[in-house]
């Protein structure tokens, strides 16, 4: 390969490299994200990453249901990223088809909260 | 703060274990043939590999994961190594650290990218799709159980759709090791292991290139090229196995190539063996990559049968036997536990499926061309790759580098066949896996280009 071509390619490479880093930071909004995240503690980082409202919902469910109980999510699209994060976050509680609790998220009828299947009591999130 | 100190300690201990494994594999003289930075990189990569295998065996034996139980065997290994002269051992020559201004500028750019990766990894908890759905979830289950629960695989299959219980456990167990060392569950700090994989590999990549090409500038340039590829650096921040698999496959082939170049250094062959086994321990596709390494080894053996001493032939036979035995054991283990991959399984290999699968080729080709021109993820690496292949076709199929060229052929063929035979809707499957799978071969591609152009004088050192 000619040295000149090599230098041109290297220049193109560096321009594209910088371009894509800057694009992500400015256009995709990563910079704003990082600025918000950098001052937060672990709890805040989770909340920001999962979405403040969704994280509040998950924390609420985790607090309300006991570890060995099961739940079902309503209002969270099955196998979506939010669903995966919820299943991961709520473990050791398990998601089941016939659960002990039904967790509603932004449900049109019930809003956001937790229904105990055994008692029929619905506990809404504040 | 305490967690951070423990994390640093955990990484140092892991590196120390890897350092001992490296010494064990190389012997004192062989150990001294590595550069200092290369030893650091290799120690980290080996450290996580062997600790996770040890934890898996402990888990199968019903042992709990505690710091003491995990570290105890390594105290004996370290004692044996110290007695064998580990403390007095040195590193290769003057090392690769004689740089001019241009070289230092390249090092600064690599350092910049690495720091940025660390920042991006540690600013967020584990959150990407596969990181939570597969690796993070398994790690959490094992951490909370304090070991490998007896019904781990069955429970995974029945309770978590798409958690892939059949996947090897290198990444989840690496995370469990960090949690165990920290003494608590911290899914932010644990992500430090991924940019450290990246950094360790960058050190190894540079050192191997430097040894093979004997050109500092060229080695730094291609190391920078690899380090700055967006897909490669992005994947060092999210916590999935694809980058690690690419790293182990790359290391396995680089050291195989280094051994072929200089047969006397059997420590390179041993390192290559360990890394090819770690491919199979990283991801399902790793078994196929392990067999690519073995095929190349046999290709070399048969084309040089008269020149290779019997002692080396025995060494190679043992190498192959050991790797095959381990991969078959893993497959038997999966079979015993009924762990079947829903996307692709060996049972899917039949003529009927192949014929119907041929219809998928346009969709596969469409995805390949998308990746080829995918500047956002790959910069111009695949265009350069095609350019080098076209311009230096003769060099690519001659000498020892033809083995690496053959690896591309086997890789392309194998992965395309997997797509053809797979049970998943093809447009969806290639869209979600195409760019990840290319990571498996990326380091080898950059290495191959560097070696081909090392004799061209395009990159003089002064």
Any overview of this molecule?
The complex is a heterodimer of chains A (126) and B (462). Chain A has 126 residues and is an alpha/beta fold. In chain A, 52% of the residues lie in helices and 18% in strands. Chain A has two domains: 34 residues; 74 residues. Chain A has five helices and five strands. A five-stranded mixed sheet of chain A has the order 2-1-3-4-5, with helices on one face. By secondary structure, chain B is mainly alpha-helical. Chain B is globular, with a radius of gyration of 22 Å. The N and C termini of chain B lie far apart (46 Å). The interface between A and B is medium-sized, with 30 and 35 residues.
Strand content range of chain A: 15-25%
Task: Give the terminus-to-terminus CA distance of chain B.
Answer: 46 Å
Class of secondary structure makeup of chain B: mainly alpha
Order of helices and strands of chain A: HHHHEHEEEE
Rounded to an integer, what's the Rg of chain B over CA atoms? 22 Å
Q: Roughly how much helix do the residues of chain A carry, as a percent range?
A: 40-55%
Unreliable spans of chain A are none
Taken as a percent bin, the fraction of beta residues of chain B is under 5%
Helix percentage range of chain B: over 70%
Helix tally of chain B equals 21
How far do the termini of chain A sit from each other? 67 Å
Strand order of the largest sheet of chain A: 2-1-3-4-5
Shape of chain B: globular
What count of helical segments of chain A does DSSP give?
5
Largest interface: A-B, 30 and 35 residues
- Could you list the spans of chain B in which at least 5 consecutive residues all have pLDDT below 50? none
Global outline of chain A: elongated
């Amino acid at each position: 390969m000619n040295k000149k071509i090599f230098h041109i390619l290297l220049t193109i490479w560096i321009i594209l490299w910088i371009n894509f880093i800057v694009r992500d930071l400015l256009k995709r909004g990563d910079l704003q994200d990082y600025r918000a995240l950098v001052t937060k503690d672990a709890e805040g980082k989770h909340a920001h990453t999962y979405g403040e409202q969704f994280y509040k919902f998950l924390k609420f469910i985790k607090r309300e249901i006991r570890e060995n109980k099961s739940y079902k999510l309503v209002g969270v699209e099955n196998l979506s990223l939010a669903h995966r994060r919820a299943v991961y976050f709520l473990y050791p509680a398990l998601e089941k088809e016939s659960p002990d609790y039904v967790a509603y998220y932004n449900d049109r009828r019930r809003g956001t909260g937790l229904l105990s299947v055994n008692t029929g009591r619905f506990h809404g999130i504040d | 703060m305490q967690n951070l100190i423990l994390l640093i300690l955990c990484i140092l201990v892991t590196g120390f274990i890897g350092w001992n494994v490296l010494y064990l594999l190389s012997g004192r003289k062989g150990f001294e043939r590595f550069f200092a930075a290369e030893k650091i990189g290799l120690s980290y990569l080996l450290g996580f590999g062997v600790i996770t295998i040890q934890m898996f065996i402990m888990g199968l034996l019903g042992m709990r994961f505690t710091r003491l139980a995990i570290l105890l065997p390594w105290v004996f290994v370290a004692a044996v190594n110290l007695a064998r002269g580990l403390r007095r051992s040195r590193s290769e020559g003057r090392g690769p650290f004689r740089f001019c201004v241009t070289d230092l500028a390249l090092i600064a750019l690599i350092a910049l990218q690495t720091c940025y990766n660390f920042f991006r990894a540690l600013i967020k908890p584990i959150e990407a799709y596969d990181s939570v759905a597969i690796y993070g979830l398994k790690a959490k289950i094992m951490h909370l159980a304090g070991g490998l629960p007896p019904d781990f695989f069955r429970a995974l299959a029945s309770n978590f759709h798409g958690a892939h219980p059949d996947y090897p456990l290198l990444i989840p167990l690496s995370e469990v090791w960090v949690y165990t060392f920290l003494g608590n569950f911290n899914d932010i700090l644990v992500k430090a292991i991924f940019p450290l994989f990246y950094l360790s590999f960058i050190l190894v990549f540079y050192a191997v290139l430097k040894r093979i090409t004997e050109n500092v500038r060229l080695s730094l340039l291609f190391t920078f090229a690899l380090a700055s590829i967006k897909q490669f650096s992005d994947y060092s921040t999210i916590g999935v196995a694809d980058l690690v698999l690419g790293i182990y496959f790359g290391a396995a082939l680089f050291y195989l190539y280094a051994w072929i170049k200089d047969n006397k250094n059997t420590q390179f062959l041993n390192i290559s063996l360990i890394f090819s086994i770690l491919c199979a321990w990283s991801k399902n596709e790793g078994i196929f990559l392990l067999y690519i390494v073995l095929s190349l080894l046999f290709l070399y053996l048969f084309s040089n049968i008269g020149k290779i001493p019997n002692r080396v032939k025995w060494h190679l036979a043992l190498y192959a036997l050991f790797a095959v035995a381990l991969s078959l054991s893993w497959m038997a283990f999966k079979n015993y536990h009924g762990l079947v991959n829903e996307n692709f399984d060996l049972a899917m290999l039949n003529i009927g499926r192949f014929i119907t699968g041929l219809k998928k080729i346009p969709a596969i080709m469409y995805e390949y061309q998308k990746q080829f021109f995918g500047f956002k993820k790959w910069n111009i690496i695949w265009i350069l790759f095609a350019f080098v292949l076209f311009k230096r076709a003769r060099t690519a199929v001659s000498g020892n580098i033809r083995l690496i060229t053959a690896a591309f052929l086997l890789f392309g063929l194998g992965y395309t066949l997997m797509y053809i035979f797979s049970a998943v809707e093809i447009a969806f499957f290639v869209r979600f896996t195409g760019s990840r799978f290319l990571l498996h071969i990326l380091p080898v591609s950059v290495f191959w280009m560097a070696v081909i152009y090392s004799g061209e004088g395009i990159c003089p050192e002064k």
